[in-house]
Specification:
This protein has 5 helices and 24 strands. The chain is mostly beta strands. The strands form 4 sheets. Strands 2, 3, 10, 11, 12, 13, 14, 15, 16, 17 and 21 form an 11-stranded mixed sheet that branches. Strands 18-19-20-24-23-22 form a 6-stranded antiparallel barrel. A 4-stranded antiparallel sheet has the order 7-6-8-9, with helices on one face. A hairpin with a 2-residue loop joins strand 15 and strand 16. The N terminus is likely disordered. It holds the Pfam family Peptidase_S55.
Length: 319
């Protein structure tokens, strides 16, 4: 998912610098997690087809970005395919469209010949790329991104009815420079092979069940309590070429309540990427063989510097 730049530390999509007490959930329950770091495509099926741009209906009436379509001619709409089917079946010069704006249902009559022209401004899914953080080998549950998905066109958290993740390959890198965050150029390895489902989209990440057994390969390691994360060397696991995950050196410089700050010190990573990239959100950080956290932030003016959420905070899924 792409970063939204601010002057100081920024989150990819939502700020997570919220102070809450840490609970040693993973340590208390004896769970170990497999750190991952692969690039993934995330696709969420929207609860209802949604306008992603304002669309003029007549001289005074507009559909607004974020309006959710409920029905055409009193027939329920759940996808763009439904919209197309009902549009073709309609024999009347005008079509009744029921839609939801905020919490209010509204009806409007629209000329039938305008239905097809509206299609480019409607979506029934939202998608992007990020990094998968971990999988629990006992339950197959994964966590990814370390932040909530917000649709950048409708500028809100998309109500969704299920979703999928797909393994992505990094085809190229646009390097970060001070003041200009770089990004991964990714393509889905196969849009037809689902790596997992999406069950939750919370402020601490995207969560679901991993389906692809090939992504579970790796050694499960213990998660570390926030109080045991210390300043000093650690490793960042991420993919910047194809789907090959490698470890890169970082230095943890500040410990906070739910997050910690770090600097990328690995010269190879800096030379290739300039530091932290958009699309690295969710990349796991390991210290002394234990799972410490996942990247969520970067400093725009100094792209080698960023911040991460503690893994035990992320596992809680909500504050």
């Amino acid at each position: 998912m792409r970063c939204v730049a601010n002057k100081r530390i920024i989150t990819i999509l939502l700020g997570l610098m919220i102070v809450f007490p840490i609970h040693s959930w993973a340590e208390k329950n004896g769970d170990s997690l497999i750190p991952l770091g692969q690039s993934i495509g995330v696709q969420l099926k929207l609860e209802k087809p949604t306008f992603v741009h304002d669309v003029l209906i007549d001289e005074k009436l507009w559909f607004k970005s974020g309006d959710q379509i409920i029905s055409l001619n009193e027939k329920s709409i759940k996808s763009i395919a439904d919209w197309k089917k009902i549009s073709k079946e309609s024999k009347n010069p005008q079509v009744s469209i029921e839609f939801l704006r905020g919490n209010k249902r509204q009806d409007v009559l629209v000329s039938a010949n305008k239905l097809e022209t509206m299609l480019p401004f409607i979506r029934d899914y939202t998608e992007g790329i990020g990094t998968i953080t971990y999988v629990n080998p006992k339950t197959n549950e994964y966590g990814a991104l370390g932040h909530q998905i917000i649709d950048q066109q409708i500028v809100r958290i998309p109500p969704f009815a299920g979703g999928s993740i797909f393994l992505s390959e990094i085809a190229g890198i646009h390097k970060s420079t001070p003041g200009k965050p770089g990004y991964k150029i990714a393509k889905q390895a196969s849009i037809h092979v689902q790596a997992g489902n999406v069950r939750e989209n919370t402020i601490y990440g995207v969560f679901g069940e991993l389906i692809d057994p090939n992504m579970k390969k790796g050694k499960a390691i213990p998660t570390v309590n926030a109080h045991n994360v210390k300043k000093g060397q650690a490793e960042l696991f991420t993919s910047i070429d194809g789907n090959d995950v490698r470890a890169y050196q970082v230095n943890i410089i500040k410990i906070e309540e739910t997050t910690f700050q770090f600097i990328v010190t690995d010269t190879e990573l800096i030379n290739k990427t300039g530091g932290i990239l958009q699309g690295m959100s969710g990349s796991p950080i390991i210290q002394d063989g234990k799972f410490a956290g996942a990247i969520t932030h970067m400093v725009v003016d100094n792209p080698v510097k960023g911040a991460a959420i503690f893994i035990q905070e992320m596992i809680k899924k909500q504050p």
